[in-house]
Fold this protein.
Amino acid sequence: MTNFKDLEVWFVTGAQLLYGGDAVIQVDAHSNEMVKGLNESGNLPVKVVYKGTVNSAKEVTAAFKAANNEDKCIGVITWMHTFSPAKMWIHGLQELKKPLLHFHTQFNKEIPWETMDMDFMNLNQSAHGDREFGHIVTRMRKNRKVVVGHWQDPKAQAKIAGWMRVAAAWADAQDMLILRFGDQMNNVAVTDGDKVEAEQVLGYHVDYYPINDVMAYYNAITDQEVEALVSEYFSLYDHDPSLEQEGTVAYEKVWNSAKAEIAIRCVLKETGAKGFTTNFNDLGEFDQIPGLASQRLMAEGYGFGAEGDWKTAALYRTTWFMSQGMPQGCSFLEDYTLHFDGERSAILQAHMLEVCPMIAETKPKLEVHRLSIGIDSETARLVFTSKQGTGVAATIVDLGNRFRLIVNKVECIKSKPLPKLPVASALWIPMPNLEVGAAAWILAGGTHHTSFSYDLTPEYWQDFAEMAGIEIVIINENTTIDAFKKELRLNEIYYMLNKALC
Ligand code: MN
């Protein structure tokens, strides 16, 4: 649906004229070489564009204002080759609205012990220059990522790459429309929240879209369109040959599922929406829950949340956007049922139907079975179990005075088919184990719905939370309940004060 190729990250080098124009010319050449090296490393998903050295408050402000106004620019990297007196950054930093990465690096890799002279020093002063810059950013309470390492080091480049993916997803979130087909499930607290605040803080715009209007699309779809999609299903997914037999209930259900998928995709395309929610109590003239449609649209990059859960729909879109092109995949998931087994105690992750086939271990199977929730009907769906490996589950909750992002590292273990409950599923052990992981999640007020990814790490979410300026709590292999509770209590005070001070 989209990718990173049209995006840019700007690279701005901090300098000053104390060492003469020649030094700045050399720094400019170094910066060019560094940016070229970063771009040619093949390790960065977004192009870096060098925007020159800045030597005064005027130049800083002009560079950052230009960054704000350029849609393609998703973030700014700064590097101080030398002591760049930081008062000159104040006005520019006040203006800057794009995510900031401060790269603490140096053109020269190792100290040339035998030949080092003052000329060399004038060109390699990041050691103190970057600290002066860091001071003012901290004093101004501006969130940013600090990456330390030589610019040719793949480890430092990987850090920048991760931040770039997050910055791209952040830009995507600032122009994100989520459509709700139906309202939230009645009485459910955790999927509700302040949509006005969400737009202000996270960028997500959430609209209601009447299911009757979806039906106008549904009823206008031609047989040829449906036929083409049904044959795509049969070529893509394993299935029982009997499913292809026209005139059967199962065939009709696959047919109508394809119709639902086409209708929803049409609405999303025409409105420019990046995600949607459904509600199984509000399905218009659909003859079954459009679960297969949701599964496939998620794989295309559309955000999805069940039961009106617009926060998870938006977060899934962000997850997908960040992890585009990464190998393992992501999905909306729900904590379904518990499996107690000592240290290997796990949570089965599934939903009525809506699990993204990107996380499947083997080719998904198209099946039709009865589902009694919502519309009691034979219902098409993709069935599979998920890959094994580590991943992260994330959710955003509205605590009344702020949003909290909750992230849990998990270990996906071998799941088993469920012959009497044929749905797609994953099975994971929340880190550090079920006892602590699930308790911490519950104490943090986390949802039963999550946006899950194998490819992301908590660091991606940390960067995302900093860009949004929201709270994040991470549950991982080192979490203890005692320390976690203290963190929650301290955060309560921190965010209360922060809000009062800003
Ligand atoms: Mn649910």
Summary: Residues 306-307, 334, 351, 449 surround manganese (II) ion (CB under 6 Å).
